[in-house]
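Holo prediction. Input below; ligand is adenosine-5'-triphosphate.
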Amino acid sequence: MLLLREVRFQFPDPRPNRYPWNLAALAHLDSLAFPTPVTFFIGDNGSGKSTVIESLAQAAGFNPEGGSRHARYDAVHTDVHLAQGLHLIWNLKAMSGFFFRAESFFAYVNYLEDIDGFDPYGGRSLHQQSHGESFLSLFRNRLNPHQPSLYLFDEPESALSPTGQLAFLRLLKEWSDSGLAQAIIATHSPFLLAFPGATIYSFDDGAITAVNYMESKPYQLTRTFLEAPDVFLRELFRAEDHVDEF
Ligand SMILES: Nc1ncnc2c1ncn2[C@@H]1O[C@H](COP(=O)(O)OP(=O)(O)OP(=O)(O)O)[C@@H](O)[C@H]1O
Ligand SMILES: [Mg+2]
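Structure of the complex:
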């Protein structure tokens, strides 16, 4: 379901030369459209994906630390300021949803278990499940759209094995098929990015641009690597500046 149609960015004028307003990806950005029920944000480490997704979460009324619209707790105190300048344009305002943030997951688990107990998670504390098991348990048990829901994820794959990532893809398909959920996902995973019909925004090269799956960097780099790991590694270890050359 398409709930959030577009976000417009209103920057202070003049634009402050400090975080978050000086991120290269945002330099020429006025707005970002969400034309499909699933949107991915990709880009190198530090390109600004989390900053934008946390700002979206805050502007949409979620706790920027992660959780549902009602979650109220503090972890490391995220306040990215950008949110104040975001104007969200809704087809239908999501009254429900979830912001999954791998970075503050454990603080959220503490909060969840204080208010819910363990019952919604198979009667077992999320802390007693493995890192990846606890992610999947939360996704399966907590994210069942019964009403229009916006799901924001920041690196949901971070604890997941390749098989776990396929399990996440199946859940994404279920949410998408329910006709009730929209998902915006920051990811580095070439598995997740393969989700059919998704919009992929790259934050690389000083702009946010739409790319297709097969031209996306996670796909390209993984494919080149897997085609000939020995050749790839020889090049990697020879290169003087590893990161820039790839
Ligand atoms: N609170 C902050 N104060 C100052 N700079 C920050 C703050 N948070 C992030 N940054 C900087 O802003 C840039 C973008 O960070 P952000 O976390 O949005 O990147 P990202 O694309 O999510 O990266 P990753 O893939 O590593 O998660 C980084 O260079 C980071 O150092
Ligand atoms: Mg990030």
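The beta strands are 4-9, 31-33, 38-42, 86-90, 96-101, 149-154, 181-186, 199-202, 209-211. That is the main takeaway for now.
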